[in-house]
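Quick one:
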Amino acid sequence: MRFAYVDGHKQEATPGSRGLCPCCGSVTIAKCGLHTIRHWAHQSLRACDPWWEPETDWHRQWKSHFPDAWQEVVQYDAQTGEKHVADVRTGNGMVIEFQHSVISFREARSRERFYPRMMWVVDLNRNPTEARRFRSLRELLDFPAVSPTLSLPWPRRSKLFETWSHATVPVLFDPGQEQDLWRYIGFKGQDIEHGTEARYLFRPVPKKALIEKNGGRYSPAASSPEHISVPST
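Output:
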């Protein structure tokens, strides 16, 4: 995690410091090695939020577009007692979850039910093969001269896009090193279940516009992160 409470204040990790987890209140220890992003880790090995994933520099760069107070915000359901840490919760109550690792259908739907208003930003480079195909096909097409919708012919079923085909909230793919995100619209074509050609549909969403619409401040320097992992503890 990026933040913990030190003497009652939300702070980033500094060498030798200790804090308290904002979600479970347990002791956290600053991890400030040479080869990992500075972060807080629980003193015990347990993770307090089962939805927490190992954080990469991609996550950090995305979060850095928003005020510190909006990052890693604990959300609590008073009826069930369930607590989770939202990657970003904006001033108008929109939760933005930045997803790099593989996520199960069940967990994705659980998050969408838990957060009243949310959207996904998905790291397209999590699957390098699909990311390369996406970029090469997009470059071949006459877009956006013909239609505002990008229609990509796919030779076989895409596991990456199929994962998000049943999302109940907006899903935006981040191809990295570009000014646009790509909102997933769906697919059309033949029998995709049996691997015949289909076309996956996307619409461009300017990264700067998305960030600023949700109260953040766009920084071009944060558009090309390295994928350095932070342990999930």
